[in-house]
Amino acid sequence: MSEFFQAGPVLRNQFDDDELLKSYLNEKLPTKVKKEITDDLKRFGDRVVSDVLEMAKSAEANPPQLQQFDAWGNRIDKVVVDKGWTDLHKVSAEEQIVKLGYERKYGPHSRIVQFAKLYLFHPSSAFYSCPLAMTDGAAKLLELYGGEAFKKTFNHLTSDKPDQFWTSGQWMTERAGGSDVSNSETIARKINGEWRLFGTKWFTSAITSEMSMALARIEESDGTTVKGSRGLSLFYIEINKPDGSLNNIEVLRLKDKLGTKALPTAELKLVGTKATLVGNVGEGVKQISSMFNVTRLYNSVTSIAAFRRILTLATDYSSKRKAFDKVIGQHPLTASLLKNANADFQACFHFTFLIAEIFGNEEVFEVNNSLNLNREDLNRILRLLTPVLKLYTAKRTVQWTSELLEVFGGVGYIEDSGIPTLYRDSQVFSIWEGTTNVLSLDLLRALKKDQSWPLLVQFLNAELSRTTDSDSKKQVEAELKKLNEWVMATYKLGDEGLEAEAREMAFKIGNLVSAVSWLRGESVDYELLKIFMKKHF
Ligand code: MFK
After folding, report:
1. Could you tell me if 232 and 279 are in contact, meaning their C-beta atoms sit under 8 angstroms apart?
2. What is the pLDDT of residues 174-186, one digit of tens each?
3. Cα 196–197–200 angle (5° rounding)?
4. Which protein residue has the closest C-alpha to ligand 1 atom 43?
5. Which strand (E) or helix (H) includes residue 294?
6. Which of 129, 141, 259, 365 is most exposed by smallest CB count within 10 Å?
7. Which residues contact 192 (CB under 8 A, 6 or more apart)?
8. 3-class SS at 503?
9. Whose CA is nearest to atom 24 of ligand 1?
10. 393 pLDDT higher than 90
11. What does the pLDDT read at residue 351?
């Protein structure tokens, strides 16, 4: 009698297999753009389950190592990475993951096309998406504040030539200032007419990058500094000197993280690191926020991509694994679990791509844009919804990755199934680029500063008026009215009361915006939308 061996889940072409992505792009993009990109996405959909996935597996299996000394005792602080990791750098350049956002050859649709590609890439990239997020953020920052002086650097960040393509770090977090960046201690001192940085950076991902943006406090000639975040300025750093040695940087250690094992994240000591001031003195936090608003959007795109990967694997597996006389996907309880996961996934997908659409429209502004908003209002909505999106998609992905792991039973808990990597990696989404609480407070900050709540309500009502299904539309309209009343009542609680409700507010807004963005589509899966609304409204 032959022994039984369970067939594992299989990943097919990740573009062909993704009905939601295909129908979304089909509805959103002009015919000309669709014609240009479809074959490329199809080709890439195949690559991310073949050679690219192998690179990621290799990088994951061989995490970076720090060689602090050479054989003769010289301090070298060399971070050695797997060939898979360097190959992923080449793939990122060739596939134009960053370039697509800046070449803007698809006009206001460029960000949608770029993020569709990132979404395919991320779950097979061993988190190479993290350096790409910071690279895109740095390109945005230099585009806004760098001017001609940084044109060459900008060209490196947006190149599609592997030997020209640079990635960037974002050195913000310090021991004294994680969420509260205003406590940063790094000092910038002018020595012989050049800026030199001194201090310790506590979390610096992608240390193998060519450059970084860093915050530091300028020290006057009398040794004084301005305290708080208004004392922080922004600096550009090239990580290596022309001879290849580090730019007066010591790598204290590599972080032993819960997940994202292939990604080199280090603690650094800056010991007179040569740097160039970017933009205005004392406006570092404001300027770097243009970078972390991009990285927060990357966080969401990669988060929904990771969500989809485990959902795809769990769905495939549940069509194969038999228990109690039928495949588990046919048992009502598993079928319901998968539908619930899919409902939350589709909500996150639509919310994410709505923000991508707004971002693209803000960057390539046209008066008759798809959102019917002027540029200032596009910016205000982006400012308000980016923190909500980030915290919302991150939390859903963390929760569902844990839940969906169970579909695989014991094998989901075993390393070489690959599922534990997805589980560990998912946890970073709600920490990377700001925790759920910090982002909830950021929502309050945006609401206060921009007074944009009425604008959001008006925008959501306008979007709803374009939808066709009257039942769902009525329900979401009623929910929006309820939310508006709840927000007004919560405002009356005063600052402390409002802060205590900030998280609740963020998730309520997240649910609502997800439903509205979902309803904007032409081919809505109403069964899933109803499941979503029943659960979250
Ligand atoms: C991928 C795997 C990674 C591996 C492991 C990684 C583990 C995690 C490692 C990390 O450390 S990730 C980084 C986590 N840290 C953060 O994301 C920072 C979180 N903190 C915040 O976001 C704070 O809200 C912030 C630092 C921005 C608050 O600082 P302040 O000192 O209270 O600033 P303030 O006064 O609110 O804002 C200063 C200026 O910036 C203002 O402009 P004005 O001067 O014109 O008034 C603000 O309007 C502006 N600003 C702040 N946040 C903004 C913004 N502008 C646009 N968008 C924003 N989000």
Report:
1. no
2. 998 788 888 899 9
3. 160
4. 286
5. helix 284-318
6. 365
7. none
8. helix
9. 442
10. yes
11. 98
3-state secondary structure of 465: helix
Mutate which of 227, 445, 499 for ligand 1? The one with the most ligand atoms within 8 Å of its CB, which is 445
Residue 194: its H or E element = strand 194-205
- Of the ranges 139-148, 467-476, 500-509, which one carries the lowest mean pLDDT score? 467-476
Ligand 1 lined by 427 (C-beta under 6 Å): no
Closest by Cα among 290, 306, 309, 312 to 137: 290
Closest approach atom of ligand 1 to CA 387: 59
Tens-digit pLDDT profile for residues 403-420: 999 999 999 999 999 999
- Domains in the chain, ordered, with CATH? 19-157 (no CATH), 168-282 (2.40.110.20), 286-536 (1.20.140.10)
d(CA 27, CA 349): 14
Q: How many CA atoms lie within 13 A of 310 on its CB side?
A: 31
Q: Which long-range contacts (CB under 8 A, 24 or more apart) does 311-316 make?
A: 311/338, 311/341, 311/342, 311/345, 311/400, 311/404, 312/9, 312/11, 312/14, 312/17, 313/9, 313/11, 313/404, 313/408, 313/419, 314/9, 314/338, 314/341, 314/404, 314/407, 314/408, 316/9, 316/10, 316/11
pTM: 0.97
Answer yes or no: are the C-beta atoms of 478 and 503 closer than 8 Å: no
Flag whether pLDDT at 469 surpasses 80: no
CA proximity to 87, closest of 62, 104, 111, 67: 62
Rounded distance between C-alpha atoms, residue 475 and residue 483, angstroms: 12
What's the pLDDT tens digit per position in 68-89?
A: 999 999 999 999 999 999 999 9
Q: Which tens digit of pLDDT belongs to each residue from 39-51?
A: 999 999 999 999 9
